[in-house]
Amino acid sequence: MKIAMIGTGYVGLVSGVCFSDFGHDVICVDKDPAKIEKLEQGIVPIYEPGLDDLMAKNVAAGRLSFTGDLKKAVDGADAVFIAVGTPTRRGDGHADLTYVMAAAEEIAAELTGYAVIVTKSTVPVGTNRQVKQVVSKANPKAEFDVASNPEFLREGAAIDDFMRPDRVVVGTQNERAEQVMKDIYRPLSLREFSIMSTDLESAEMIKYAANAFLATKITFINEIAALCERTGADVKMVSKGMGLDNRIGSKFLHAGPGYGGSCFPKDTQALARMGQDHSVPMQLTETVIKVNDEVKRRMIDKVVDICGGSVNGKTIAVLGVTFKPNTDDMRDSPSLTIVPSLVGNGAKVRVVDPQGKREGEALLPGVSWMDDAYKAAQNADALVILTEWNEFRALDLTRMAKRMATPVLADLRNIYSPKDAKRAGFTAYVSIGREGFG
Ligand code: NAD
């Protein structure tokens, strides 16, 4: 099959590379010339484990190429995937569909024969019908169908998620389009896998409902964590005890500094907005958004408290600023709320993150970037763990504490325990949903 992938971001690039690995001929398009230039040189513009090797393999096999010329990619394609961004629209929380609709118009102009136009971007219910209208208006002779194929991959584990998904959801309006989608995903069925076929609207809704549910689960345990802190319960034990119940499950039950990233914040907002537009307020989701903001702000209080009530003039070493490990994505990361507040209150912040610097430099002005946790801790007044990268999971805490001016630790990912911190010589320790000391 011949596939055009419009957008080479976290989703488009991973999807394009994986489809080519299935054996399809894939041309990836991006309107950002800098990205295309890098890709043509074999450089992956984002950090995603394993992507460089898989990309190189498929480029070498002649199945995968990159271009800035959408016409070249769309010409003769069986399916054209739209994988462009759908960020929050300024001012109203709605998903901004500017990029999706612009891509649809561009595709319309270049269609040469029957193709399925597939929306992989996360879009509000009704968008695929809108895409259909836009394409028909721009090119009344175009022979095409639309399909909704939301993506569920997680950054940091994207290839595995794409190759071994829990499900593939495909919403179509007729059998012809459904068949094209089945042919594209057929290599996955070799792994006893089946596509869930739906109508357009249900496919669109599944994505938002799934993300809002996961965001709710995280926020639920974060709220329970706050109550644990006041009552003497330990949220790690509580979430383990809850998660052992199969009806609940253990995933997305880890208390932390609040959810962030490129999906949950914008998708919960877009769902809330969709509810308002249809006069069916998404009250749970609206509350989740509010509580998550409070959770992030509570993290600032924790750091200020452990610094003795003020961070002014204090040197604080922050470990991890990406929204989760194994990605360079900084979009809506909790660090973007917490770090600027510390800087604004007079702290000298040193940041260590294995991949966060490229994006983070512009987003976190006034911090100094360091490449080693031990160096960052030298003479520091506090240590704050914000992202649980592997290299921060097995720190020599005694070595860290010894070199600090004031050995206090805010462990906002519950990697360590009060016992670990005390044994290592820290004089104060605070985490999430557990009693600390100091
Ligand atoms: P991204 O911002 O990383 O990438 C989007 C890319 O599209 C950019 O490189 C941009 O230059 C390009 N682009 C925009 N308009 C274009 C056009 N007309 N022609 C060619 N290229 C164009 O975005 P992303 O994180 O990959 O997300 C894409 C979509 O997938 C979003 O709707 C998002 O909600 C959804 N999604 C993301 C994830 C994730 O983990 N990032 C997971 C599931 C779903």
TrEMBL record:
Residues that coordinate or bind NAD(+): 30, 35, 86, 122, 155, 266, 331
Active site: 263
Residues that bind substrate: 152-155, 207, 252-256, 260, 324
EC number(s) given by UniProt: 1.1.1.22
A Gene Ontology molecular function term of the record: NAD binding
A GO BP entry: polysaccharide biosynthetic process
Gene3D superfamilies assigned: Cytochrome c1, transmembrane anchor, C-terminal, NAD(P)-binding Rossmann-like Domain
Residue intervals of the UDP-glucose/GDP-mannose dehydrogenase C-terminal domain: 317-418
Record's keyword annotation contains NAD: yes
SUPFAM superfamilies from the UniProt entry: 6-phosphogluconate dehydrogenase C-terminal domain-like, NAD(P)-binding Rossmann-fold domains, UDP-glucose/GDP-mannose dehydrogenase C-terminal domain
InterPro entries per UniProt: 6-PGluconate_DH-like_C_sf, NAD(P)-bd_dom_sf, UDP-Glc/GDP-Man, UDP-Glc/GDP-Man_DH_C, UDP-Glc/GDP-Man_DH_C_sf, UDP-Glc/GDP-Man_DH_dimer, UDP-Glc/GDP-Man_DH_N, UDPglc_DH_bac
Assigned keywords, A-Z: NAD, Oxidoreductase
Broadest EC class assigned to this enzyme: oxidoreductase
Catalytic activity: UDP-alpha-D-glucose + 2 NAD(+) + H2O = UDP-alpha-D-glucuronate + 2 NADH + 3 H(+)
Pathway info: Nucleotide-sugar biosynthesis; UDP-alpha-D-glucuronate biosynthesis; UDP-alpha-D-glucuronate from UDP-alpha-D-glucose: step 1/1
Superkingdom of origin organism: Bacteria
NCBIfam families (UniProt xref): NDP-sugDHase
Family, as annotated: Belongs to the UDP-glucose/GDP-mannose dehydrogenase family.
Name of the molecule in the record: UDP-glucose 6-dehydrogenase
Organism, as annotated: Sulfitobacter litoralis
